[in-house]
Structures are given as C-alpha cells and as structure tokens.
Design brief:
Blueprint: E1 22-30, H1 41-50, E2 55-58, E3 70-72, H2 80-90, E4 97-99, E5 104-107, H3 111-114, E6 125-136, E7 139-146, H4 160-178, E8 183-186, H5 197-201, E9 208-213, H6 229-242, E10 249-253, E11 273-278, H7 283-292, E12 295-298, E13 303-308, E14 312-317, E15 325-333, E16 340-343, E17 351-354, E18 361-367, E19 370-374, E20 379-391, E21 401-406
Parallel strand pairs: 1-2, 2-6, 9-10
Antiparallel strand pairs: 1-11, 3-5, 4-5, 6-7, 7-8, 11-12, 12-21, 13-14, 14-19, 15-18, 15-20, 16-17, 20-21
Length: 414
C-alpha cells in the first residue's frame, strides 16, 4: 500500500537512515479484566497481534494495569473456560492461582509484566491507555487517554462540556509535565445521548473523536432527535472551521469488552481501527502522525493511495475480488445557513440546534476503485468516505458493510 500526502496534509519525507513510511494498524479503545472486559489482558493482546495489528491500547475504565489485583474465576464471562485458554496459551508457570473452599482467584498481570511477551521493534507495540470514565447527572462522559504515564482520576464538572474539558485538560497537563507524547479523544458521543454537537464544537484543544465505535449500544446511527456520529463530525468541522477553531479528526475503534461470545449483541474485537502512516512504530511517531492527520479510519476497506495537493484529492482503494466500491467526497462550503435553535423537551437539554443540509454535502460520488475531486476554493473542508459492497464480518448491527474514512483537509481559500 502507498500513501502520498501533499500540501493540505503533512508530507512525510524519508531521510537518510530513516525507514520508508508505512501503514500501522491499531486499536485505541479496548477493555480487559482490569475493568469490565471479560478476558485476561495477555489473551487480548495476543488476539490483536495474531490478527495483523501493529499496536494496541488497552484502555480500561479509570485504572491502569499496575499494582496487585486478583479476579474470581467464576465472576467473569466464560469462567473456567477462559482460565483453561489462559493456561493453555501461557503455561501454568505464568498463571498465578489461589484457591480455597470458597474462592478460586487468578492474579492479573501488570502491563510491565506482560508487554515484553509481545512487543517487537517495528512490528508490535502496546500503549498504556485509560478510558477516563466520568459523568454529569445521569449522562456518561468518557474520554480516552492514549500513551499516558500516570493514572488520571475523573475531574468532574458543572456541565457535560465542563466535564469533558476538565478531563481533556488533565491529559494535556500530564503531557506538559512529563514530556510524554499523548493525546485524548472523545469516546462514543451518542452513548446515553450524552454529548451534543455544541459541546464538541466548543471543546478546546481536543482534536479527535470516535466517528465509529464497534459497541452495539453506542448509537453510531443516531435517531430522530440526535445526529449520527458521522453527521456530528460534519457539524463539528463546519462550525469549528467557520469559527477559526481547530480541525477534528475521526477515529474508528472496537471498544471491545467481549472476547468469547462473538455476535452482534456483544462488543467484540476486530470491528474498527486506525491505519497510521509513520516511518517508525513508536509511540512518539504514532502520536505525531495522528496529530498531523496522517491516518485513516476503517472497518475493513483498505486504501492504496490518498493524495492531497493544493488542487484537489485523489483516492484509490486496495480492491478485493468481487467487491464493489463507492467513493464519496464530503464537505461543507462557506456561507451555509446558520443553525436554528429548536426545543427538545425530555432529552435532557433545553435547547439544541438544527443544522442545514448544506453541512456535510456529498460534493462528488464515484462508483469504482479510484476517484478524484478538484477543490473549487469555497470548501471549509473536504473528506472522503469509501463504502464497499462487502458485508462486515461479525457486524455490530445487521446490514453493516465495510467502510473507510479519510481525515478532512482544508483547501486553500481562493
């Protein structure tokens, strides 16, 4: 595969002694028995490595995999079957058990204990991450922190927006204090219908949110009162860029919790990921690449080329046999009608806004494995979406097909 990024996106240059840039497949949002996942972290990391991932961030709720923790075998889904698989894969000398007439428990290994089993230079990397799990009133507000050094306790706040901002700020405060490259991203905004477009528009310093989450309970598609996650993305981009704020990038994740029951009723691995373009498989290189927007998000579609110049965009798919593709270029032109306030009684917000259909227009659509779009100079941003005819393996909802999303770019204004 090959990615060329020019002008509006970052240009990755290979210097003497620096490896050529390549794609690294990774998942940023995953859970284990350290919080509410149903399997041992080593088995989870092993699954991702065996399935072609280059990096994984286990982001358990409000906890890092450190210190001493024991879990009762019968308490988690799968029970003894999970323990049998754990012992079969890593051996009885690795697995620490304790048993008495009342309890059979297993000690969870820490990240520092198990990471050397899997990490290989420029082949596989484990990132220390956390899902900072907070709320305002009854609304769940979750912020992922990728590549953190220390646990971040939820900060709380007096509104949904303030809770998000306080937790985002906590990640950047740790980054400033420690010098470690890390970033936050907003998880599943429609989960519990907690986060509005307006909250995300005005969030400061946040550059990432989940445009796709593989958990069946997070409402990616929205409903009659709430926009889909992808529609949220266009609203956020239009309003932020129109107001002189930063770009927002969209990530796809698994949010996996269940590793034994594999069906649409459970949150399973292998549903959503990011493909990051970097010369090195190192945390600092991955963070820097993602902050440049040098990645795309996918649920199965692979891209061969993404070329962006001052004149336009070109997209080419890495095609599969007997699979059809539709490439859309989506964007918003300047001068769109302003949002209209609407009352939404009963959904927890006194006022929301109705955004015009001119936000997130399909500017061009091509059926095939490649397509180009020429900027006209009026666009606030342009992004590409590639939809395939291939049904998603183990979808989180019936009828799901494989998709990929490039990151938005801002054309030069004319």
């Amino acid at each position: 595969m090959r990615l060329t990024i020019l002008a509006a996106m970052a240009l990755t240059v290979s210097c003497a002694g620096t490896p050529e840039p390549q794609w690294w497949k990774g998942n940023l949002h995953t859970h284990s028995l350290w919080s509410d996942g149903d399997d041992y972290p080593e088995l989870i990391v092993d699954w991702y490595k065996r399935h072609g991932y280059a990096f994984i961030g286990l982001s358990d709720h409000n906890v890092l995999a450190e210190g001493e923790r024991w879990v009762e075998v019968i308490e988690h889904a799968g029970g003894v079957a999970n323990l049998d698989a754990y012992i079969a894969r890593f051996g009885r000398d690795w697995v620490e058990e304790r048993e008495d007439p009342e309890r059979h428990v297993v000690r969870l290994k820490t990240l520092n204990e198990y990471r050397d089993l899997f990490e290989e230079r420029n082949r596989f990397l484990v990132l220390q991450s956390e899902e900072i799990t907070d709320r305002f009133d009854s609304k769940p507000i979750h912020v992922n922190a990728t590549n953190i050094l220390e646990l971040i306790e939820p900060r709380g706040g007096g509104s949904v927006r303030e809770v998000m901002q306080n937790n985002v700020d906590a990640v950047f405060e740790q980054r400033r204090r420690t010098g470690r490259p890390m970033f936050p991203h907003i998880n599943h905004p429609n989960y519990g219908w907690a986060v509005s477009a307006e909250d995300l528009i005005h969030l400061e310093r946040e550059r990432f949110f989940e445009v796709y989450n593989g958990h069946p309970a997070v409402h990616n598609e929205g409903d009659s009162l709430h926009p889909s996650a992808e529609r949220l993305w266009d609203i956020i981009l239009a309003e932020r860029l129109n107001g002189g704020r930063e770009m927002m990038f969209g990530v796809a994740v698994d949010d996996a919790h269940n590793y034994r029951a594999l069906d649409s009723a459970h949150s399973n691995p292998g549903r959503g990921w990011v493909m990051v373009r970097s010369s090195l498989l190192r945390a600092d290189s991955l963070v820097a690449a993602m902050e440049r927007g040098a990645f795309y998000s996918s649920t199965g579609v692979e891209l061969a080329t993404v070329t962006v110049t001052s004149e336009g965009m070109f997209i080419a798919v890495e095609p599969e046999a007997d699979v059809g593709y539709t490439i859309q270029f989506i964007g918003t032109r300047g001068g769109y009608p302003p949002p209209m306030p609407i009352e939404t009684p009963g959904d927890g917000a006194s006022v929301r806004y109705l955004y015009d259909a001119a936000i997130g227009e399909v500017l061009a659509e091509v059926a095939g494995t490649s397509a180009s779009y020429s900027f006209v100079g009026e666009e606030l941003y342009v992004r590409a979406k590639v939809m395939s005819s291939k049904p998603k393996e183990n979808p989180y909802r019936p009828g799901e097909v494989e998709v990929a999303w490039t990151q938005p770019v801002r054309p030069e204004r004319r």
